[in-house]
TrEMBL record:
A GO biological process held by the record: methylation
GO molecular-function terms, A-Z: methyltransferase activity
Protein name, entry field: Methyltransferase domain-containing protein
Membrane-spanning residues: none
Organism: Vermiconidia calcicola
InterPro entries in UniProt: Methyltransf_25, SAM-dependent_MTases_sf
Length: 224
């Protein structure tokens, strides 16, 4: 396998190993997801007819469950088999479709999604794949559609942690300014951006929290 494949296998196997531990941590330690989901809901005019994609749904709570309560159709994606299994149990609503897949391999029609939500997931991609993923999300969103995500804030070409919540794990990131620039280059207008920290495995870790709206690409921008 190449380096990119190795990283993705590591992430998949890591979350398969710690799926239940991660679910417990999510519910006990992390509340910013619900805060930002409420902001997302306020930006979607009619959620009852909207379709949303969640990249990195984890065990489905709290985010997937809240999305299912508000949107007509939710596609919940994760690279981990164990996470998808937990999410199916935790979120039994009929309006949710679960997809176990590498997010870069997903396909949707252009202009078909009202919102895309990606909590702690794009950061698990190799860094060279992240700008293209943002551009792909822009393509999937309807005009004026919303991306809600969090991204890294450090210049990290790729890090492997030997013991994160009990498993090996991989991340990569650009710094906050570079992430904002990548989003704008992809065609997004930044609605809100803020660096906020969460308690993660005993440490306070900062993330760039983003609400961005699909705008019109200017000449020379975006899709290559």
């Amino acid at each position: 396998m190449d380096k990119t494949s190795d990283a993705k296998v590591l992430v998949r196997e890591g979350y398969n190993k710690i799926a239940e531990t991660y679910q417990k941590w999510t519910l006990e330690e992390e509340t910013l997801r619900t805060v930002f989901l409420e902001k997302l809901f306020s930006h979607i005019g009619d959620t009852s007819t909207a379709k949303v994609l969640e990249l990195g749904c984890g065990a489905g709570i709290p985010a997937t469950r809240l999305l299912a309560d508000h949107f007509q159709h939710v596609v919940a994606n994760d690279i981990s088999d164990a996470q998808i299994d937990l999410a199916r149990t935790n979120v039994p609503q009929a309006n949710v479709t679960f997809v176990r897949e590498d997010m870069t391999q997903l396909t949707f029609e252009d202009d078909s999604l009202s919102a895309v939500v990606a909590f702690y997931s794009i950061i698990h991609l190799p860094r060279e794949e992240q700008p293209a993923m943002l551009q792909q999300i822009w393509t999937w969103l309807t005009p004026g559609g919303i991306l809600l995500c969090n991204l890294g804030v450090s210049d990290d070409p790729g890090t492997m942690n030997e013991d994160w919540l009990g498993a090996r794990m991989y991340w990569s990131s650009f710094n906050a300014a570079a992430n904002i620039e990548q989003l704008k280059k992809a065609g997004f207008a930044i609605v809100e951006s803020e660096v906020l920290s969460i308690k993660e495995d005993g440490d306070m870790v900062p993330f760039l929290w983003i609400l961005a709206k699909k705008g019109c690409l200017e000449a020379g921008q975006g899709q290559q």
